[in-house]
Amino acid sequence: MRVKILIINGPNLNMLGVRETSIYPQATLEQIIGAAAEYKYEMPVKVDHFQSNHEGGLIDRIQQARGAYDLLVVNAGALTHYSIGLRDALLACEAPFAEVHLSNIFAREPFRRVSVLSDIAFCVISGAGEASYTLAIIAGLNLLKKKSKEKKK
Ligand code: DQA
Q1: CATH number at residue 101
Q2: Which of 63, 74, 133, 151 has the fewest C-beta atoms under 10 angstroms from its C-beta?
Q3: Residue positions annotated with a catalytic role
């Protein structure tokens, strides 16, 4: 059975490749997600992707993901720093999620160092650039493996 993974990207991440290339990767979102989906993980995965510039669209997609995915990987973009709606949607979804930032948010403006998602994420990956989503999936698969071992005990 394949592990079902949903990658979610928020506002402005569709602009990767042209957006602030001194801070963000020069690759496009499609290229980065394509590489994460094709990576040879230690177990079979099915990776779906959703990007929206709209908070409501992201919340709708997260609501639909409840019970349908084993793992979420979320780069909420600027919404990370203030969207309680997104936080509540992720809590209601109940699937473990990794919070991802391509840039190192802790080395940027003070308002970016605040996340309303980090304390409910199972991990935070920040500053790993193009490898970010792949690393988040590797960490998520390890978590699922650990959880299933604990269940069997
Ligand atoms: C980001 C960091 C956020 O502060 C910013 O608003 C983004 C992208 C990142 O991937 O580094 O849009 O989440």
Answers
A1: 3.40.50.9100
A2: 151
A3: 24, 101
